[in-house]
Amino acid sequence: MQEVMKNSELQPAMPACWNEATKPHKFCPGCGHGIILKALGEAIDELELKDKVVFGCDIGCSLLAWDFFAVDSVQTHHGRTTPVITGMKRANPDIVGVAYMGDGGGYAIGSQHLFNAAVRNERITIILCNNCNYGMTGGQMAPTTLPGMKTETTPYGRDVEQTGYPTKGPEMVAAVAPEGAYVARGTVSNPRQMKAYLKKALENQMAGNGISFVECLSGCPTNWRTNAKQTWEFIERDMAQYFKLGELRTPQSEEG
Ligand SMILES: Cc1ncc(C[n+]2csc(CCOP(=O)(O)OP(=O)(O)O)c2C)c(N)n1
Ligand code: SF4
Predict the structure, then answer these.
(1) Boundaries of each Thiamine pyrophosphate enzyme TPP-binding domain copy (predicted)?
(2) Average pLDDT over residues 226-233
């Protein structure tokens, strides 16, 4: 029988809050979801939140993370992770509620939940993986598909005259959330910065300030049909040009 190694024996070490029995994980090789969840795991470890976090994932490739962490987890209907985690947080304000989803879940079918959670300044943390397409269902156009980008449903490239321009989620949340919100956009191509944003988002919830929302630019090489070089070029050049990186709202910047 294969011997299972402990987290501490693996180099580089897995975050302690990961569920080592479910590794290697189920995402495709080169997928960004694993990088986001590693940054999240390290943030949870560093803030010593393992026993407080309730992790919710959506339908879409994020659901492959339903057993990713050794924390209480819930897998919800498509686009419904935000209201499920909102309910848990309201029922038990001592938890740290994390809602994890894709751009389809957050900006299409679940957009009303994201918008209204922001308006109500729910004390939860929402993390959204933006990979410019519907990954799990085979690469259809998503609200975030870039102008001219080819997908299964836009074989000639996204025509913005017909479908509008890509959704800028953090800009929308930053515009409607009341004081106390934390909003940022990071990228898997800069995991250190992304982790810093995720950490601040968790801290903002712990401080009871308001909603925290972090969009993470990510890659889907399977549906983009890209090799490693093309995948990283697309994230760093094309995506980051349209979706500007950085912090859009911090409670500190509102002081004074
Ligand atoms: C109510 C409902 N509508 C549609 C679907 C089909 N569906 C499953 S996953 C998915 C796309 C998910 O894409 P996204 O949220 O961007 O996440 P990704 O897979 O790219 O990480 C869709 C449309 C569903 N499961 N339930
Ligand atoms: S289909 Fe795309 S988003 Fe889903 S696991 Fe594979 S690479 Fe990741």
Answers:
(1) 70-216
(2) 98
